[in-house]
Structure of Reverse transcriptase zinc-binding domain-containing protein:
Amino acid sequence: MKAYPQGQLLDTVFSISGSAVWKGILHGLELLKKGVIWRVGDEEHIRTWRDPWIPRPSSFRPIAPKGSCRLNRVSAFLDANGAWRADRLREYFWEMDVQHILKIRTSPRQWSDFISWYPEKSGVFSVKSAYKLATCDHNTTFSEGATSASASGSRSLWNCVWQSSVPQKMKITA
């Protein structure tokens, strides 16, 4: 595809100039990037310092290497059985990262790495979870402005809209 010739949608960076439609597409892509996380398998797809793969809120990336680290793939931190090499992790990662990494269950069958949608327990993308991610992000950014969320963060007005028994088309235009 012309927009991302390397075939990696998550690595793309676009110019912010363009039509309103193009800006909407860019906003959707950025939202998608915020909710995507790699799940660790046996392949060498996950880049240690660049890709989102550590399951924790915020960036899903390591804080920073402890020093110089030439191990650029997460697979370099797994042993032959697919288990974490804690000694190597502690050598190159800060302890707070190591704590999160050791909680990641690795695959004894050594399945391939794959991309998952973090906001859903199932790992499958849904418009509803993307909407929640977008509105949480919007409410954080514009916390001083008008919103339909209560002070506790609940969005009862929108829950009423989404649970109403009207055609889906009507819910989307609400």
In short: Residues 93 and 145 are 39 Å apart (CA to CA).
